[in-house]
Design brief:
Two copies of one chain form a homodimer.
Chain A lengths: L4 H8 L3 E5 L2 E4 L1 H18 L4 E2 L5 E3 H6 L3 H7 L4 E4 L5 E4 L4 H11 L8 E10 L14 E11 L2 H21 L4 E5 L9 E8 L5 E5 L6 E3 L19 E4 L6 H8 L7 E12 L2 E12 L6 H9 L5 E7 L2 H4 L21 E5 H4 L4 E4 L5 E6 L9 E3 L19 E15 L1 H5 L4 E2 L5 E2 L2 E8 H12 L16 E5 L5 H16 L4 E4 L5 H11 L3 E5 L7 E6 L5 E5 L3 H8 L4
Parallel strand pairs in A: 3-7, 15-17, 17-20, 25-26, 25-27
Antiparallel strand pairs in A: 1-2, 4-6, 5-6, 7-8, 8-24, 9-10, 10-21, 11-12, 11-21, 13-19, 14-15, 14-16, 18-19, 21-24, 22-23, 27-28, 28-29
Amino acid sequence: MADTRGTEMLLRAGFIRQLGSGLYAMLPPMTRVLHRLEALIRHELEVAAQEVSFPLLQPAALWRQSGRWDAYTRAEQIMFAVTDRAGRELALAPTHEEAAVAVARELVGSYRDLPLSIYQIGRKFRDELRPRAGLLRTREFVMKDAYSFHATSEDLARTFEVMGDAYARILTRLGADWRAAQADSGMIGGTGSREYLMLSDVGEDEVLYTADGLYAANAEQAVSHAHPAPASPFTTFERRQTPGTPTVASACAVLDCEPAHMIKNVLYEAEYLNGDQTSTRPILVSLRGDHSVNAVKLWNTVSARVEGTLTALEVADTEKWATSLPLGYIAPDLPDSADGPFLRLCDEAAAGLRNFTTGANETDWHMVGANWDQHFPLPEVADLRQAQAGEVSTHDPAQPLLSARGIEVGHIFQLGTRYTGALGMTYATADGSSQTPTMGCYGLGVTRLAAALAEQCADERGLVWPAVIAPHEVILTVVDMKDAAQVEAAETLYAELRAAGIDALLDDRPLRAGVKFADADLTGIPWRVTLGRGVAGGRAEVRERRGGEVQEINLAEMVQYVRDRLGQP
Amino acid sequence: MADTRGTEMLLRAGFIRQLGSGLYAMLPPMTRVLHRLEALIRHELEVAAQEVSFPLLQPAALWRQSGRWDAYTRAEQIMFAVTDRAGRELALAPTHEEAAVAVARELVGSYRDLPLSIYQIGRKFRDELRPRAGLLRTREFVMKDAYSFHATSEDLARTFEVMGDAYARILTRLGADWRAAQADSGMIGGTGSREYLMLSDVGEDEVLYTADGLYAANAEQAVSHAHPAPASPFTTFERRQTPGTPTVASACAVLDCEPAHMIKNVLYEAEYLNGDQTSTRPILVSLRGDHSVNAVKLWNTVSARVEGTLTALEVADTEKWATSLPLGYIAPDLPDSADGPFLRLCDEAAAGLRNFTTGANETDWHMVGANWDQHFPLPEVADLRQAQAGEVSTHDPAQPLLSARGIEVGHIFQLGTRYTGALGMTYATADGSSQTPTMGCYGLGVTRLAAALAEQCADERGLVWPAVIAPHEVILTVVDMKDAAQVEAAETLYAELRAAGIDALLDDRPLRAGVKFADADLTGIPWRVTLGRGVAGGRAEVRERRGGEVQEINLAEMVQYVRDRLGQP
């Protein structure tokens, strides 16, 4: 059942129980962890925004106004749609941009009401195709989502940084190993976005970053300088027979060149929805033979160039095209098909290539020594290439890109006027004219953050919570419940810790000490005080869960010792 | 838009905004009120249960196991059903008995794990036919719901009282005007339930209660002694011609008797679902001419006597039956129709009647001087009558029933084994045998409670929150922002109050004092400190929102004064 160590430990330790695919119940210790995490988030956001709460059910009309109903329900199928008893459609919200604008447009009349920043902590729903890894990818989860409205993009940029700073403080206080990375804005849209990722082998995202700390980006978005192509062995433009070489590797072998000398031309098919009508368009992407297409960059590029909502973008079905096209030998100037003209795109690195080889538009033939404009018209150029670890960063040629896996826990966006414009939100400026405010949105996964911490911190004995969100701060374990002195010392210490505002738990179950130690380790309470034979001499053992470090302390000094270790004043 | 004063004030004061039918956004002040209310509820429940959190989306299979899927989706249509991308049905939970058992059955192995009491605070959904009165009846709302599991019904009864005591403390701390009342268990089921109602003219429920405080019940459930029928004027059983008298009033006029001398026989039609098959059954209810049928009592009585899920119960369609039956002249022994035998029921008060008049099963004819068993077989007897204000209570004939309107804010149930049995939850007893635990559930409407308080407390100037959940405890209003002494005194006092842990708000907007006073009244902050010219002499005015009482206090004593009034140590 559990596909990651964190999930396994959360299940074994009784923090969560699965109720259905991607649906989990939070049991008492997890509820405590989440409450403490939410309190920490509220504390750090207090300076940045006011708390509100939006309904999870929302009229479909709102989502139609923003143009997202079709994209979310039909294209991505990521949004649950509900029909009420009167036959009206409702969205079960995966995000709240529409609701935030609908409320903000009633609260904001003039420039004096701006900026407005609001946030909520609550449930979200996504009809995930493949829920996985316990709380990391579920169909129902808790998020903190904030929305801000501004008169100017400079003011938006300031709030974007204020929110980013709050995220940095939150992740740092949690002791997380994290990176902020440039990111793709995806279906949310907007002009710029930044992800907050916690590094973990079970993460679904790849982060490319430099060691100097000046660059980090999701691989979906990352840019780099491609390794320069070595000088081309071809100097003359000519046609060569290359039998049985439909792949880059086989063609290079026959032509005695490297993949970096080749332009490959990949056929895609786009499907898009305009109103109720579905259309398709063939796409031809030219890129260097040693590079691969970044699906997200291509999606965004194509999405901006079709009329309507892009609903699918796939490498063309070879069976369908095999009879009509010279697949494996296509040139950038392949004539348009009967289905309509190609959208022709060329990757930036491919656009810089000289004396390249490419297909000859005829099976078993290639062209060599080709140059753009001279032999083939250069298609529209865009960054379509997947950046890779080992390539050189764009800000400093001495900094190669490094790679790590990450769990996206936060994502913040400068949206611009996409939603405020679509939903007709305006404000009166100082001179009385009407303007559309610019908008930002800021998401932080609460259940995912807790789960990512479980992944980062768990060891083979169980969970290891940071004290700031642990279900309890200290556990007092009585070694021998038949020893009245041990029991009495534990109860006294428990009362003292509680009185000092420390969240202590007393394990006075009549079980063997070993069982109790294992349970405490599994639960991940940061400090364990063991009350054993030492209490006769007024002493007890304190053990730190994370490092396993053990110290013997006088009972009389225990409260102060624990307080110091928890960093409390 | 606003159909009650509380709703009107919540909208005007910027606490809530409507986003769709029965769907509201909570704005910052309402979010503060709800957080404080939730904290108060958590505090009072801490002794009774542990907090958990269940998913709102739940596999339909769980609801089919309990037998409620059809009743909630098809019969009452009160539950939103969602279909995921794989075509599987999910419930959008209106309540969580199924989820609670599904989790509890994994947590409970033996009698040593019992009792188990858990609660959550979260969203619920109901596909209401007619949302109304702002937050009082919505399609999405916040509830506290608790579930408990026990080895014995005595232990369940104890927890039932512990939960009831917590509700009583919560409502009392909020200063609510409330009643605990015997209630119908409705679709939740179970052997006994109690409602907590806040009295309000906008309430949808009627409470019948006695002045001695010993009896209170929802009118749906209330019992009473009917006024005794006066001695019958009929002494001989005979047939009388009564042309054109299909109603009780017209028949009494012709027969020269009172409605209390008559047995009326009312035809109902029940529709019920067994598996996928819908069946109907005609029902004949005999009751005294001066009484009316209690729809809830009848539903429950019929529900227990049909095989399957009762989905509809309506007075028979007169057009359908007018040709085949002597409507208005029916006797208790009306022959069974071709559609199947009647379910025949007689109300308790009607069963005690002697020498009554009733229909003769022939249009324009009645029987008089009739007696049960002698002239008509007595049908199955049940309490089917609507109790009414003015009737005598069953516990003390000197206590007449009084009537009030109430808003149901809480409802607690002793469920028995309905859900634990259906979902196969068992525990091992001390002797190793397997037993089904008995269960209780305990609901408290959080958003509804806040809205009911708004209804009870609002006056013509706005909201009046009790200090314990007010969005702020004190508002400091600067009369003249151009007077530096006033501004300075306000800022100093604000800092002092904050330092003392009092949630103060400073109104330093450059507006006329009258506008600021009106806003403070509208928002309903319990205490207002007015910093005006008096600050020159070191004094300020304190005004209580509820009573309007005003006092002048030395600024130096203000913190202590406010603290005393808030009841803080």
